[in-house]
Hints:
Blueprint: H1 8-13, E1 17-23, E2 35-41, H2 45-54, E3 61-64, E4 70-72, E5 77-83, E6 91-93, E7 98-102, H3 107-116, E8 119-120, H4 132-138, E9 141-142, E10 145-146, E11 151-158, E12 163-166, E13 171-174, E14 177-180, E15 190-198, E16 200-201, H5 204-221, H6 241-247, E17 254-255, E18 258-260, E19 268-270, H7 276-294, E20 303-305
Helix pairs in contact: 3-5
Amino acid sequence: MVANGMTTETSKQLRGVLKEHEVLSRHTSWRVGGAVKRFYQPADIEDLSLFLSTVPANEKLYWLGLGSNLLVRDAGFDGTVICTSGVLNSVEVLDEQRLYVEAGVACPKAAKVSARNALTGAEFLCGIPGTMGGALAMNAGAFGGETWDVVESVQTINRQGELTTRSPNEYEVGYRHVSGTFEEGEKSEEWFVSCVLKLTPGDAVESQSKIKTLLNKRGASQPTQQPNAGSVFRNPENDYAARLIESCGLKGTCLGGACVSDKHANFIVNTGTASATDIEDLITKVQQTVKEQTGVELQREVKIVGEQ
């Protein structure tokens, strides 16, 4: 299939999968979301570079991994979505301290590969329900660890398909926040396609056992059996979003098919019939109620994209 704005000659060289009007509820962990104009799954980084070079400069782009930490509105997205999950999926042990991981690799997979190879320090990644690309973009964390704690270098790609290798000191990294210090004026459009993690040599059995313990802890405290997008709100400084939400009596509150989880108040679950509008309205209701009752303004961790 040839996308608008591409030449036939160029598109013949593309090796990825291009779909038009793909419904994004098939690709998001909340199982909601309308259709996207174009949906591309690159064959590899080289193919991704070629594809980006064909996309019109004014085309809206969104990058999708496992579709967690994301709410796509019911009206969909009038642009191109690039899906890296399952395709930019290479993990390679470089030496006794370093692991190469592409952006489409699920964070739990990165944790397990590092553990099997006696590289320690990445066990916390097993608790992040997304891909490495998303984890790098927001400095995702779990169980006291954060993604950029273990990053040695990253590889990025821009709209022209050009690749750049960057070091952590070229970024301002904070709690659930990453921005490039190299950016000037308008926000630079660069996206992460791979990284090198610097880890510590250790014991494979001990590391794998730690991952098992952390996964059991996650299963016991989070609604992993129901469609959700991970934590909805950032934790306020010196407090927890879940505690604030629960203190306002919001656990179990529902709008349509969307409910604040009874298991963990900072999770909103799709009970089976939720629309994106149900979820977005419930997010707003939780924010308003917590603000009214506690004075704290909860900040969304979940990204909302698409047409109103």
